[in-house]
Structure to design on (272 residues):
């Protein structure tokens, strides 16, 4: 497995960066006139690589949360097989929620095979966060505004994205900083993390004016982390406190931004 690890890691990083920065537009990249999309292609290569490694089974046996994920995926597979005779390829596409969980199995196997990989990828992700926050605010401001340029073999604009996905990524950023970086961080790094967390929380509230689903998904994950992981609480409290100050100022000044879909304001957030 180690011989093919580096090319696969590069492919995964490309896919994850594409999803993170270009969202649904990137996800629509596919082999013309086929239902094979870029995410499935990389996943298939990784899965074929991982299942031949003894660490694949070891990773599943060691991790209770992964065992629960496997049960969820098996249930999803059963439902997909049940619906396939009637719905065909649409049943498979709707099953993306469960079969994309295979990425967790593949990457977990890679981490066991090359333990140094985790720290390397964590440092890389930490460097990307400030850039992503800028892009996320820009994408939110351009929500539902389409450019005429399309993804090949589709009607999808290169700017097409779901606002809720921004909230999910924002929640992931906060959880990454709280669960992975904060416990080992120096005092200087913790100040930097705190600086990043405030715009990340503001982003979640801004997205919450446009969609409930993404905000709820991110909020539930953070509440679970707050309850179960004591060391996350300080960062969460600081971030929420900073957010509360910004929110109260926005209410007092009646700050409003007109977006394509809905206005961005404290009033709209409370209405949502």
């Amino acid at each position: 497995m180690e011989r093919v690890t580096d090319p696969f890691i590069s492919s995964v990083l490309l896919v994850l960066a594409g999803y993170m920065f270009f969202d649904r537009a990137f996800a629509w990249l596919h082999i013309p006139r086929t239902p094979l999309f870029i995410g499935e292609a990389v996943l298939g290569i990784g899965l074929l690589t991982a299942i031949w490694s003894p660490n694949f089974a070891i990773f599943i046996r060691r991790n209770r949360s992964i065992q629960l994920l496997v049960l969820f995926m098996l249930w999803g597979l059963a439902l997909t097989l049940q619906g396939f005779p009637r719905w065909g390829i649409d049943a498979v596409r709707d099953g993306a929620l469960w079969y994309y969980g295979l990425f967790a199995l593949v990457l977990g196997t890679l981490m066991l095979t090359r333990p140094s990989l985790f720290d390397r990828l964590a440092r890389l992700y930490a460097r990307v966060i400030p850039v992503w926050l800028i892009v996320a605010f820009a994408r939110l401001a351009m929500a539902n505004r389409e450019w005429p340029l399309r993804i090949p073999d589709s009607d999808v604009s290169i700017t097409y994205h779901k606002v809720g996905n921004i909230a999910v990524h924002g929640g992931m950023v906060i959880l990454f900083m709280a669960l992975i970086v904060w416990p080992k961080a120096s005092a200087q790094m913790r100040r930097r993390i705190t600086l990043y967390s405030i715009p990340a929380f503001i982003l979640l509230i801004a997205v919450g004016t446009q969609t409930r689903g993404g905000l709820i998904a991110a909020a539930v994950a953070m509440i679970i982390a707050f309850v179960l992981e004591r060391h996350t609480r300080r960062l969460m409290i600081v971030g929420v406190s900073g957010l509360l100050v910004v929110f109260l100022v926005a209410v007092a000044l009646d700050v409003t931004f007109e977006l394509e879909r809905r206005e961005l304001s404290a009033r709209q957030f409370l209405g949502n």
In short: The chain has a mean pLDDT of 78. The chain is about 75% helix and 0% strand. The radius of gyration is 20 Å.
